[in-house]
Amino acid sequence: MRALVLTAVITSLSLTGAHAQDWSEAPFRTPTPVPRDGLPPDREAFLRWLAQSSATLTQQDAQRAQVRLYTYISELAKHQGGRFPAPTDTAAFAIFRAAASLGAPGADLVARALYPHPERLPAPAAVPSFHLTFQPPLFKLASDDGSWGVCYPYYFMAAPAGRQRPTNGALTEIVILSTLTAPDQGPAGSSQATIMLAAAPLADSARHVNAWLTQFGLWPTSPPSGAPAGAWYAGAPGEPMNRLAVIERLPKRILILVYLGLSGTFESNRPHFFNVLTTATSGQCAV
Q1: Which of 284, 244, 268 is nearest to 182 (CA)?
Q2: Radius of gyration for the alpha carbons in the chain, expressed in angstroms and rounded
Q3: What integer pLDDT is reported at residue 241 of this predicted model?
Q4: Number of other CB atoms surrounding residue 188 within 10 Å
Q5: Phi, psi at 139, each rounded to 5°
Q6: Which of 42, 19, 270, 285 is nearest to 152 (CA)?
Q7: Which of these, 257, 150, 134, 254, lies nearest to 194 by C-alpha position?
Q8: Whole-angstrom distance, CA of residue 65 vs CA of residue 71
Q9: Maximum mean pLDDT: which of 47-61, 188-202, 224-238
Q10: Which DSSP state fits 264?
Q11: How many whole angstroms separate alpha carbon 82 and alpha carbon 86?
Q12: For a designed S-S bond to 92, which of 14, 85, 155, 236 qualifies (C-beta 3.0 to 4.6 A apart)?
């Protein structure tokens, strides 16, 4: 039954394009508590620890350190109201350089934009299966075949996962974005919400969408307040991890965007998920 409904929904989806827009200011109004992550709680002590330990970090510690750095980036972005820092902001430069040293995709591009002599910095790292460019304050991430793209702000943590073939058999481009840090009801006390984008050829639409909806436990729902029109899905109410998804049919790709987060950060950052959705388009991303 779900497959029949999905086929009808996918067929009826209209093609939508991105347009220039203002990003919601609501997420900037939340506090940014440092998560209880087992790392040095004081910012200066954390940065000293990172400088001393960077060469010997385990993968888990490197991931925790990257999340902590983006907590500080969230503080910066909220203080700036989302505006890009001035080139004279040496503290911002140091944080993005540290994030780049941990392999955070795009952090090197931000650091270069904040440095008066970018030619003296290492060349930006390539992102497999994608083209990543940065025009402050937004990144533009586009698939290398030009079939789709998305824009997101400098304070998002990104993890483009490249082109892969999940168990559903559809060749899929996957991108994970993490929003601003905000208070939540989990044990750490704060977290980022997560946006997953998965794009597959139109010929694989039904199995692509059905597999991801099943994996995340999502069912049809009415569009949330403030959301763009589309085919919307949600997880069961009352579960610890809130889930919301929408399907977008592009000229060459079927795109599913899934938004996840603990209560607190999920609600606080939802307007920026809607902003990301608005930028999703076929190969181009207006800013």
Answers
A1: 268
A2: 19
A3: 96
A4: 15
A5: -85, 150
A6: 285
A7: 257
A8: 10
A9: 188-202
A10: T
A11: 12
A12: 85
Q: String of b and e for 143-179 (b: at least 16 CB within 10 Å)?
A: beeebbbbbbbbbbbbbbbebeebebebebbbbebbb
Condensed to tens digits (0 to 9), the pLDDT of residues 79-101 reads 999 999 999 999 999 999 999 99
Which residues fall within 8 angstroms of residue 47, CB to CB, at 6 or more apart? 94, 98
Task: Report the relative pairing of strands 219-221 and 190-201 from DSSP bridges.
Answer: unpaired
Q: Is the dihedral of CA 207, 175, 282, 165 positive or negative?
A: negative
Residue type, 156: F
The letter for the amino acid at 71 is T
Residues paired with 164 in a beta bridge: 172
Within 13 Å of residue 248, how many CA atoms lie on the same side as its CB? 26
Asked if 243 contacts 261 with a C-beta cutoff of 8 angstroms, the reply is no
Per-residue tokens: 227: 């959301």
| Per-residue CA distances from 215 to 168, 247, 259 (Å) | 11, 15, 13
Question: Which position has the token pair 């400098």?
Answer: 154
Q: Whole-model pTM?
A: 0.91
DSSP result, 201-248: EGGGHHHHHHHHHHHHT-EEEPPPTTPPSSEEEE--TT-SEEEEEEEE
Which regions of 79-234 does DSSP assign to beta strands (E)?
A: 130-135, 138-143, 149-153, 157-164, 172-183, 190-201, 219-221, 231-234
Which is nearest to 208 in space by CA: 165, 244, 163?
165
Q: Assess contact for 30 and 78: CB atoms under 8 A.
A: yes
DSSP label at residue 159? E
Site of tokens 């093609």 = 15
CA 263 from centre of chain: 18
